[in-house]
Specification:
By secondary structure, the chain is mainly alpha-helical. The chain is built from 6 helices and no strands. It is extended and about 70 Å long.
């Protein structure tokens, strides 16, 4: 509105075009980043091996397909349930809180086991307490939904670990 007021409809078109390019570039980069995670996890044994296979351009097609299907599922859920995009943002934000707390708790464990400086212990304790507070502030419903959504991922993780161990034991 401000640009349209200052420079007329041309300014409004320039801002709209810039916004479209920015959103599309952001969307593309997040899709590519999300597709990289299963591929990397497969290379380290935390995901099934077929996610690590790459085409001649160096892209994991299985990983990109999984990411694209997941995005489409989320968009379908928005359409089907009538909930807004903000609901998905709330769910994804709640899901990151548990790993955030666990990272802080792991820092505390390592810092005390390795007798690190008090400053590192304090950072770990602060991160853990803050993570617990964030989980509490998000509410029980968000925590329960996050736990429910972690189950399929944990099943894939344990399946992959078992398969990688079996392959490692074969002569």
């Amino acid at each position: 509105g401000l640009m349209a007021h200052m420079s007329g409809s041309l300014g409004q078109w320039i801002i709209s075009l810039g916004l479209i390019v920015s959103v599309l570039a952001s969307y593309l980069s997040w899709i590519l980043y999300s597709a990289e995670v299963p591929c990397t996890a497969a290379q380290h044994g935390a995901f099934p091996r077929f996610f690590a296979k790459q085409n001649e351009q160096g892209t994991s097609t299985a990983s990109l397909t999984l990411t694209s299907l997941t995005v489409q599922l989320c968009l379908g859920l928005i359409l089907w349930t009538g909930e807004s995009y903000n609901t998905l943002v709330l769910v994804s934000t709640s899901m990151i809180l548990v790993p955030y707390f666990l990272v802080g708790a792991y820092l505390v464990k390592v810092a005390f086991e390795q007798r690190c400086r008090w400053r590192i212990k304090a950072i770990g304790l602060g991160a853990s307490v803050y993570g617990l507070w964030l989980i509490y502030a998000a509410g029980l419903n968000s925590l329960a939904l996050s736990t429910l959504l972690y189950i399929p991922g944990l099943m894939v993780f344990f399946y992959s670990r078992r398969k990688h161990r079996q392959l490692a034991l074969q002569p």
